[in-house]
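Can anyone check this?
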Amino acid sequence: MWFRNLRLYRFPTTHKLELAEFEAMLAKRPLARCGSFEMVSRGWVLPHQDGTFVHAVNRQWLVALGVEQKLLPASVIRQTAQERAAEIESAQGRKVGRKEMRDLVERVAEELMPKAFSQRRTAWAWIDPLAGWLVLDAGSDARADEFMETLMDCTSGSGLAPRPLQTQVSAMSAMTEWLAANDAPAGFTLDSDLELRSASESQSAIRYVRHDIDGPEIAAHITAGKLVTKLGMTWNDRISFVLTDKLHLKRLAFLDILREQSAQEIESGTEQLDADFTLMAGELSALFNDLLIALGGEQKPI
């Protein structure tokens, strides 16, 4: 259980999050199977098989959103509808019109939906109630939105309203400055993955993978006005990641020393999940502190 793609949110400082209260909110919406005519169902699942909806370890909370989605490819619907249309044309000696074809597609979709196979996936989030962090492991905006929408539905009226992390200095400005000076902030090194984008209307972009960032080619792009939108970094030789202009941490990789440390801490009867989660939370908390310093501190809401 190691997060890969981080979205960072902050809880209001005025709201004190209580474990029992939060657990009760999530328990009201457990994951249920898709109904006959539902394409997707969302609800909370147990992070730990024998636990509750909020798995608490050393004052850190782990929650998991379950999503069940039916697999009904548009190509299958379209093929079946075309077969039905061919039968009508053969039996009645006439061409199926556009409106009738649309109706056929809708009817076929309704007929096949109850028979469709379902697949499940899980979206994980870590909550630090004392420091006010909500850290979501989501690789796309759509996955992040479905988690946050479900969370807000369950906590409506509670005053719990996490917002995306905002810093005094934008990630784009900071990354461009670090690259131009070839000088990483304290605790970090710059890696060889990079994306630059033009500030003009064309929004032209260029990407480098495992490329020498010290060369004149990169400097020329920055001189021409391109800004850094993604930059590979490593923190304290322990965690590597790609920082984006939206302040997302992608392709997170906990280096071998951390995984070895987690394995060594396992004792008889101790869950691997708890050891991994505790180590991950501690390391990421320290990384976030250094990242906030590098970006001029947190921008507080007005």
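Reply from J.R.: I decoded it. The CA atoms of residues 107 and 246 lie 42 Å apart.
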